[in-house]
Structure formats: C-alpha cells, structure tokens
Amino acid sequence: MNRNKLTKRFLLLSAALTMALSQSAFAGETVALNLDDAMLRAFQTNPTVSIAQYELDSARASYNAARQSRGISISANHDSNRRGNNDAPKNITNTHSNTLTAALPIFTGGKLSGSIKQAKANYQYNEVGVQRTYNEMRSTVTDGYFNMLQADNIQKLSAESVTRLEDHLKNVQAQYDVGVVAKVDVLRSQVELANAKQTLIQAENAYQVAEANMNKIVGLPMDTTLKLDNLLVYNAYDKNMDDCLAYAAEHRPELMQAKYGVDAAKGALLVARSGHMPQVSASATQALESDHWLGDNRTKWYAGINVKMNVFDTGVTLSKIHGAEADLKKAEETYRDTVNAVNLDVRSNYLGLREAEKRISTTKLAVEQADEDYRIAQLRYMSGVGTNTDVLDAQVALTQAKTNYTKALYDYNTSKTALETSIGVPMSNPATAVKVQAAKTAKAVKAAEEKTEEAAK
C-alpha cells in the first residue's frame, strides 16, 4: 500500500473521530448510525462514564495516601512570642523559635495496615465500578438501539396493514358499485381501515419517542434523524446455563465489588481494634531559638521513641470495635445476597433468551401460514365464495403474526444483551479502541514515509 493511500485512510479516520465528538453539527440532520458508532458516541458524551473514572481517581489517591503514611513525615514549625511581666511593665521580651521534626511510625497495632487494606479494597471496588459502568452503558445503548429498530419495524408493519386494507377497500367498493356485495362490506372495510390508521399513528409516535431516546443516549440533538443498521436478526447463542453461571461467578462486577466490600470492612475492624494497642513512633527534632527574628541563634536537637496507649476512654474504642464487627457481618451478608441475586438474574435472562429463541421459529412459521391464509381469503372473496369478514380477519392475523415475529427477534436480542451483562462479559471503552487504531494508522503512515524517503535516497 502506497503512502497516499495510508495518508488518506488516516485522515478519514481522524475526520470520523472529530465528527464523533461533535454534537451540534448534526442538529436537524440525518445521521447513519451502527451499533459501534452508537457505543462510541455514548461513551464520549454520557457523564456516567466520567463520574466512574473520577471516583476511581479519588480512590486511587486515597490508597496512595494510605500506603505513603508508613513513611517518614517531616514538619516545620515557627513560633513568635512577645512576653511581659505585670510587675515590671517595661520588662518585655521576644522569643522566636523554629523546629524541624521528622517522625516515623514503628508500630500502630494494625491501624496503618487496616487503613491500607480498607483503602485498597475501596480502590479495587471503584476499579471494578468503572468496568460495571462500561457494561451497563453497553446495555443501555444496545437496548435503545434495538428499541428503535423494533419501533421502526412496527411502524412499517402498521403501514403495510393500512396499504393492504386500502387495496381491499378498493376491491370491495368496485364490487359494491356493480352490485356484487352489500353496503355492509364497504362499511366494515372502512371501519377496519380507520382503526389501522389509528394504529399507524400510534406506531409513528412510538418510533419518534424511541428515536429521541436514542439521540439522548448518544448525545445528539433531539431532532436528529437516525438511520440505523438492522441488527434484529437471529444469531445462535451457544452457552448453556451452567456455563453462564460459572462465568458470572468469576466476572460479574457486582460480585467482585461485594467481595471488596468485605475486605474493606475487615480493614476497618483492624483500625478499630488498634485503639486498644500501643502506638509507637520515632522522632527527631532540630530546634532553633533566639530573641531576634528569625530565631536561628541557639540550636537544640531531640531524638527519641514515643509510646502512647489508650488506657481508658469510657468504652469509646470498644463501641467502635462492635460497630466495625457489625459492619463486617453486614458486608458478608451483602455478598451472600449478591451471589443469590446474580444467580437469579443470570437464570432469568438465560430462560428469557431461550423462550424468545423458541418463539422466533414458531412465529416465523406463523407468518408464512398467515400470509398464505390472507392470499386465499382474498381469492375466495373475489370469486364470490368467501366473505369480507374472512379477508379482514386474515389481514389482522397476518399483521399480528408479523408483529409477533418482530417482537420475538427484539426479545431475543435484548435478552442476549441482558444475559451478557448479567454474567459480566467485559465491555471496553470504544473510544480507547479508536485511539489505538488511530495510533496504529499514524505509525503505519510514518513507516511508509520513512520507507519512501529511504527509497528516494
């Protein structure tokens, strides 16, 4: 591939990324959108992803602070005092002092290790929380995408129903004009057409609402017209129930967060128990003091070991221990409840997936049968051996069969997304993938340029 082609591809990718980040450029316009594009836009514009990342950054900083508290701390202090004697009002002296102290914790009875354990668990909790946000965002985008596709299909089916009834009404009117059928057939057909038009109006409104919701999810202006790729198709899912439960046990973010909640509670219990343990630290101080600013004439230094222990505090420490023990039991019960909730969620979504899968085959056959039944009913009516009611009933049955088939496809695809979310299939930030691809393309362009320059030499 020559340099020009590589450069062109890189520019196209850069332009696509720039357009993906722009919202106002599409106001009132038509945007073609596939599921990957929708994911990218949602991750770039939805605040929940940024909030989760900021929470992780905060937890990381707290964890670093807890670990660094094991090290030496150095503090500087300056005091300036003016003193007098009431019996000798003119005997006034000034004192200026500076101290520089280095302190190192030697033994804290588990206070530091507990704080570090607690901060680490909180950091890991938020780290998994980012992944959980990614997974939930994927579910939100996919559900909105499929909901719009279904609304579009229902809208089209309603329009088809109106068209069929309009054509049938023309045939009925023609036969009535020549005296073959009664007026009641015309009236009944007109009523059914009016009802179908009402259904179409509702379907069109539902589609507009679904489109507005999708625009909100991906961060586009509400009046943007979307053109989506049709992904309401059947792709077999090959995992069984046991596979899904086993995968969820290892990858479901909520389970991991519940585990880290237990770890954090254990760390908090260590901190509480440290109140009954001695606190040992080493310190060294350099002091400067004089009667004149800056106070740097006379020098003193101190070095030693400090031991502090709580002997009696009216039960405050014991109460804190009891509270931390209760929090630990609560965290353990929360984990147990989360395990049960996850198992139920996986089972429900898996069974929903298989139920929708069965409906796809049965409703697809029903569409073929209803289509043939409607064709036969029309022929019989035109031949004078069938009734208008037969045709109208067959038309309703055909519309319902197609609607059921569309609903089965929708339920299957949304159930698959729900199942993948419930078992914890990881979703990466699509924006990262685009940046990686752009970097690879830029690298390839640079390599091609260097190769061209070498060839020119």
Overall 3D shape? elongated
> DSSP helix count?
10
**Unreliable stretches, pLDDT < 50, 5 or more residues?**
10-25, 433-442
* Mean pLDDT over the full residue set: 87
Percent of residues in β-strands: 5-15%
Secondary structure tally: strands: 6
Q: What are the secondary-structure elements, in order, as H or E? A: HEHHEEHHEHHEEHHH
Distance between the terminal alpha carbons, to the nearest Å?
Answer: 20 Å
Q: What is the SS-derived class?
A: alpha+beta
Helix content: 55-70%
What does this protein look like?
The longest helix has 68 residues, at 316-383. The strands form 2 sheets. This protein has a 4-stranded antiparallel β-sheet, with no helix packed on it. It has a two-stranded parallel ribbon with strand order 1-4. The radius of gyration is 37 Å and the shape is elongated. It starts with a helix and ends with a helix. It is an alpha+beta fold. Residues 10-25 and 433-442 have low confidence and may be disordered. The protein is 70% helix and 12% strand. The chain contains 10 helices and 6 strands.
